[in-house]
Amino acid sequence: MTWPVAELDNVARLRILAAAQPSALFAEEVVDAPFDAVWAVAADLERELPVLLPDVRSMRITAADGERLEGHARGYGGVRARFDIVLRPGWCVMQSRFLLGGMAAVPDGGRTRFAFLGGFRFPGMRLLAPAVEPLVRGYGPLVIRRLRDRLTGPGR
């Protein structure tokens, strides 16, 4: 018997990815805005990702081949990372050498179910995960709150 992965929506797929990652933080909420409006903000990685993620100063897309992108992020502490990105409607997964990130969205009536994933990817993270979890617990809800603010802020 095979698992019907094709029948899962994008948010469910992101939840599975989070469950497989020892350090992953995952947040999911229903946003009171239509899918097209939500995804227009979430998918604008260069302009909106630095607004949504408190530790990202800039994101620059440096290469694109269909839904596969390469991006370079810079943090406020000077940290830099190159990301391989898959971006399609309702789905974005990004991974660097040490980080994993993702966003997913699906229509929910006139609203949108939105999910955010973040995590570290390095050896020994399974052992460190319990110590890191209290530090990052509020990060996912903060990202979703910032997304809501972008959708309801001035000019929207």
Compute the number of strand runs.
Answer: 7
Measured by DSSP, the beta-strand proportion falls in 35-45%
Weakly predicted, low-confidence segments: none
Shape descriptor reads: globular
Q: How is the main sheet built? A: 7 strands, antiparallel
Radius of gyration: 15 Å
Give the N-to-C terminal Cα separation: 47 Å
Helicity range = 25-40%
> Helix count?
5
Reading the helices and strands in chain order gives: HEHHEEEEEEHH
**Mean pLDDT over the full residue set:** 86
Derived from helix and strand composition plus strand pairing, the structural class reads: alpha+beta
Strand order of the largest sheet: 1-7-6-5-4-3-2
Structure description:
Helix content is 34%, strand content 38%. It is built from five helices and seven strands, in the order αβααββββββαα. The N and C termini lie far apart (47 Å).
In short:
The protein has 156 residues and is an alpha+beta fold. Helix content is 34%, strand content 38%. The chain contains 5 helices and 7 strands, in the order αβααββββββαα.
